[in-house]
Amino acid sequence: MTWEYNKTVVSTFIHSGSQWSWAALDGGTGWKRIKEGAPDGCTNLTVLLNTASANGRKVHVDIDASGLITTAYMI
Known about the structure:
CATH 2.40.50.50
């Protein structure tokens, strides 16, 4: 797992299907999918990243070996 610190959420994308959410992060990180598996967890991360994007807040995100966002903190 790799932590990416002080990232700006540039954009988010959510598909109508279950657990299909993405976030674009600045600094060359690019688009990252939010890890699926727990519907509430996927929803909570999506809400957090949308809130950060809408309010100009930075986030710390944990990206696993397969490139999926598993954890995020809004700072």
